[in-house]
Amino acid sequence: MDTRMNTFFVSEKISKTRWLPDNLQASERFLTGSWDMPSNFVRLWRLQQNQYADDYNEFVPRCSDKQSFNSDITGIEFVTTDLAVVSSSDGRITIVEIKRAVEDDILQQNAQSDVLHKFNASGDAAPCTAVSVYEREIATVGEDGRLNIISANDVNQIRRTLEADSIALTAVKYVNPNEVLTANRMGVIRMFDTRATEEEVAVTAFMTSCEDERRPNYVSALTSHPTQPHIVLAGSEEGSITVWDLRQPGYPASYLSAHKSAITEIGFHHREPSKLFTASECGELWLWQQQSNMSITSMEKPVAENVNPWLNGERAKNRINVTCLISNLRKSINTFDASGSKLICGSDSEAIYLIDNIY
Amino acid sequence: MQEDQPAIFAVVDPLCSRYANTLTGQFVSGSKIALSAFRPITSNTRDAPTESAGKDDVLIHMLQPEFVFDDPILRSLVAEANSTFVALQELKKRGSKAEYMKISRTYRSIIRACLEKLQDAIASAEEAEDADAQAKYQQYISIFYSIECVWHLSEILFLDPTPSNAVVPQLLDWIRFHFPASERMATDLLLLGREASDNDDYWPALKGLILQGQVDVARALLHLHPQAETPHFKLTDQILKTMPTYSMHGATSIQKFRSLWQYWLTDTERKISANILAIEPNLEELIQLVTGDTQMWNTQIQETEYWYEFFPGYLFYTNNACKHFELGNAANTWLSRWARLKGHNSNELQMKQLDRVILSLMENDMHQVIHAIQLMADNQWFVTHLTDLLYNAGQLQIAGENQVNECIKLRDSLLYDFGSSLMTRNSLWQLGMDYLDHCGQEGQAALALLLTKIPFRTEKQALKIICIAQKKGFFEAEQDICKIQSKKSLDEQRYGNALEWAIRSKDTLYVTTIADFLLNHYSKTGDMLCPDVIANIGAKMFISPRLVFLVKYFDFYQFYRKRDFLPAAELLVNLLESKITPEYFWPSLLIDSIPLLESKDPKILSKETCAILQHLETELVPLIDKKKKRLEKYPDEPINILKDYRIENIEEIINLLRLACARNLSRAIIIENTVMG
């Protein structure tokens, strides 16, 4: 594999980055959100052909527009191709709209919610820690342990609010229109049925595996398989990945030890579900690739081949190749997003990295 | 050189100057100073409110040095240089010369890129008619331009010594880089080709090139002249072509070179005095410069702004084989000549800082260089990185008592200061860490302390800091942060969250306190707080016996609520046996056993019943007796014993329990023996 990496220093610690969805061609625009800065911004970038074309930097990102936020950006997800929801650590979500233009794209704020997450005793705002989107529904979780379901059409109308946990929630993910997973700082993942009434919310809970049961191990990242959403992958504080089949959530289907420190984001390639990426706190970015051609002499039974390799338990490792795309960055890679042949990632080193040719 | 005066800052605060008041100050985090009005107090001062108490506002002034790296453009300089800095440390002082040169060039290209961005920023500030921003960026440019200039010269003198130790060719490069005007003109002219000589810039460009020692380019320009084939031009070209140069690699011996040079010089001077070139004054002027003609150079000197502008060129024609150690003398001679011609009295010569640094560098006076570059308004960025680079490359020479030690001390203290100043600037802490990480034990200790001082607002940030503390093995820092988080959660009445943070802190006492709180709350209200957390503690409970008790009791409580009495009874008996029951929980625990004992079909076997009875008599009863005695002794104490239980209630409970045990025992014995039979 011939991958190329370009580094661009942006003077901001990046907490989230997302490609703009583009239906037909490879996306050239992306959003970034910053954290822990004197003033935080969501910026809209566009890749431009490098005028001083050397072999080194084929593309150069240029910031077209920005929106200022007064707290850390904790999540960015797209609702439609031009609308994105941004969650921030003041407990609010904001809908931003991207107006594409030939020259300079425009980023504007469409709506901002009231404080969705707050601590009961003091009434102070609690950070909203993650956001997940299904069609026009938005699920947010916060340090107050609350799960909110909001419609993208009116962010001030909370459709559902659940006291999901008594400790801070770290991640949220829709697995289907009605079921939402939340993960907390103890490593417990719960599944909520958003249709059920308050009394009968049946909760399925399962715990991430950990090398040493006595060590705390929070869920740091959560995702589900794009085509088989019952497969759920969670990255944890110790750097391992635990996989569940939601049809049998009682025990984890696989447990893979990976990075040496917390996994900051875990996610599949937008269009190719055979590729998974993980980023870690110690500055690593790995590509996990399903081996496509099983040899005939393989010991695997034909049945096993139909099973998604992620559910293969110990054998999963034999059917998945791991490639290290970035290593030794030393500063946390907080986020990445892969679309088409390009992957963009943001880091605490105040730079964004563009990796081309991830095929 | 003038002595540096301490800087004086005025603070406007009427209270400070009134009465006998003065000002007091104290360092708060990092380089911040808090100042306030103050009156000196001695042992015989009367302890009374001051006459101004309550009348005037007492002001606290926060002072901190200007910090340039908040600007996004300069911030990216810090971030980029940081990764180069780390790459340098990874060479572990064992890198090759080429590697250190590469690092030095990377640093310089970072500064260059930054200067370019600053130029752009000025342009856009001009467009926006923002005079303040323009002035600010202009100031940054002058700071970082000087830095680049000094860095380049240091690189030449210290990192890239030629085998023969000759410095002139590299000095020419340096000066060409920083005074690029004539080279730029020459490039444009060369593109014009044959028409170049008609241009007004033609002769000034040629002269500029000669003054900078760029003989080859000058010859190329001369060839463009329509009269290039005339004898005069040919002769000039011949003179320039035959000029001997001292090889950087020391292929010719210095004596041989000197005699070659002398021969060529005499020959050329002879030609000039024969007025061969008199009809082409432009050419004659060039050749006079080449021969180092004093009068000619003096005329040129008067047009310069910087003392070092023509110095390398002059050196090139007069002392081509000049070695590094001779440079200082040559520079001083040149400087006094320059000063005299410019009409300065050399004693009171007002040199700009950059001029002085360059002189010190040429004199190889590192003390003075470091002292001077510390005063640059770049928050010590330059001095730290340059010193560190020279140190790593083994080129830092500070004459002290003990050379090696002095260098490492200087370098460490610079890293320490720079690192801690970044660490205390809220969002730059991640970059600051790397500097503290590489300056010995003091740096490590400061890092451990400063990590806990980073103001974090979200748990995510707290977890990030903890991750770092874990990796570095700063157990106390990790524990501190966890405990702060736990305390915060307690204040918010988020008990589950508090408990989890407490478990993370690995502080047994702290965990016990929170577990106690939860048990107490339960025994008072019958309401178990944060059941979801307790249910998931798992193996982490072993950090504190009290937490083990809480978790096990919670399991019992769950079985009981599900009416799963047999495992509930077993757990209860285990708990009774376990010896980890807190004193205040005994009544609660024993009361819990009453319904199990009173069940029609026995849930507790005879042996276990005996055990319960035994605990009742040997643990709870003596406990109560003890409390009773204490009550008799101190009748004023609150009548409650064991927290919420009044003495009368307790005795009733004990009696109830005894009765229940007896009845269960009778039933159990009958059934057990029947089954056995």
Automatic annotation (TrEMBL), chain A:
UniProt keywords, alphabetically: Nucleus, Repeat, WD repeat
InterPro entries from the UniProt entry: WD40/YVTN_repeat-like_dom_sf, WD40_repeat_dom_sf, WD40_rpt
Chief localisation class: nucleus
Key word Acetylation present: no
Presence of keyword Repeat: yes
Pfam families linked: WD40
Record-linked Gene3D superfamilies: YVTN repeat-like/Quinoprotein amine dehydrogenase
Localization per Swiss-Prot or TrEMBL: Nucleus
SMART domains: WD40
The protein's name: Nucleoporin Nup43
Lineage start: Eukaryota, Metazoa, Ecdysozoa, Arthropoda, Hexapoda
UniProtKB/TrEMBL annotation, chain B:
Top-rank lineage group of the source organism: Eukaryota
The UniProt record lists the keyword GTP-binding: no
Location relative to the cell: Nucleus, Nuclear pore complex
UniProt-listed InterPro entries: Nucleoporin_Nup85
Key words of the record: Membrane, mRNA transport, Nuclear pore complex, Nucleus, Protein transport, Translocation, Transport
Subunit structure comment from the entry: Component of the nuclear pore complex (NPC).
Family in the record: Belongs to the nucleoporin Nup85 family.
Free-text function comment from the UniProt entry: Functions as a component of the nuclear pore complex (NPC).
Record-given protein name: Nuclear pore complex protein Nup85
